[in-house]
Specification:
The protein has 306 residues and is an alpha+beta fold. It is 42% helix and 11% strand. The protein has three domains: 3-96, no CATH class; 105-193; 210-305, Intergrase catalytic core (hpI Integrase, Chain A, Orthogonal Bundle).
């Protein structure tokens, strides 16, 4: 540092600055005037003593000494003269509360997915998080550019997929704020600006009648192999089981004999086989994450025992 140059800069300007005693986390420090360093960020001399009335008197004495030196042009730019202990480290203020490095979009998403993977369905990870991650990887990476990311998604995929991406990205940012990775959630509520999917909602469930059920079962029983030599008659008992229990196909596929009582009078639905990424995947819970016990009718019991 050019001490002589800085000393000359102080001539006639010392009265503009003063040395201030303040406290950070219960420890005293001296805040130096900006004119000492030609407008750079404020610098502090950490005194490494507790903020007590007695220690404040010591700190004020150090501050007055520093001010006198500034006025006379004899300020000690090594700061040794104003320290209480020679081994103390002097830190500029920006080092005392360093901001976290900014996360990119992909970095945040990868951390969020890694957090969610052990507690959500593998199907959700494979069929939802992975495709969204591919979109995020090609999008602008600065999280402080939410409009640019939204614009990219609308150009790269459908409006409904964009809505899902923004909704999940908002959830990821909310998690990031909670974990101290982000200061704010720039995507909060953004997905609400896009239209909801238009699902057809029926006022009442419209199940098959008993006659329709029997006709469907009969069609499977009597199905003959066509030109391709494929007959679907071997699905007959499976179709009957679905009708007699009303369970989901994934739950029926996931059943094992251990889930049935010895006399086949009761069934416990607790697992499922789903398709994720085009491959069958075992899931140790049902879609609703609830175990259900089902009492079999005589017809169903006979089918299971046959």
């Amino acid at each position: 540092m050019n001490v002589q140059a800085n000393s000359k800069a102080l001539k006639g300007k010392a009265t503009r600055g003063s040395v201030v005693v303040d406290s950070l986390r219960g420890r005293l420090r001296l805040r130096l005037p900006r004119l000492l360093y030609l407008g750079q960020q404020a610098k502090y001399i950490s005194l490494q003593i507790d903020d007590t009335p007695e220690n404040r008197k010591i700190a004020e004495a150090k501050a007055r000494q520093a001010e006198l030196d500034i006025t006379s042009g004899n300020f000690d730019f090594s700061w040794n003269k104003y320290r209480i202990f020679n081994h103390l480290t002097v830190l500029p203020s920006y080092q005392e509360e360093q901001p976290r490095p900014a996360l990119s979009l992909t970095e945040l998403w990868d951390k969020y997915v890694a957090y969610k993977t052990p507690i959500c369905s593998p199907k959700t990870v494979i069929d939802s998080y992975v495709p969204m991650g591919r979109h995020f990887a090609n999008a602008p990476q600065a999280l402080d550019q939410p409009l640019e990311i939204r614009s990219y998604l609308l150009g790269a995929t459908t409006e409904q997929m964009t809505r899902r991406c923004l909704m999940n990205l908002s959830a990821a940012c909310k998690w990031g704020v909670k974990k101290g990775l982000l200061a704010t959630n720039p995507f909060d509520g953004m997905y609400l600006e896009l239209a909801k999917p238009k699902y057809k909602i029926e006022e009442q469930a419209n199940p098959f009648t008993a006659q329709e059920r029997d006709r469907i079962i009969q069609a499977f029983q009597t199905h003959n192999a066509g030109k391709k030599g494929i007959s679907y008659s071997y699905y007959t008992n499976f179709v009957k089981f679905l009708f007699y229990t009303g369970c989901r196909p994934s739950e029926a596929v996931g059943l094992r004999w251990k889930h049935l009582s010895d006399d086949c009078a009761k069934i416990t639905f607790t697992e499922a086989i789903v398709r994720a990424g085009g491959k069958p995947l075992s899931r140790e819970t049902t879609k609703t994450k609830k175990t259900r016990k089902f009492s079999c009718t005589n017809t169903l019991q006979t089918l299971l025992l046959s």
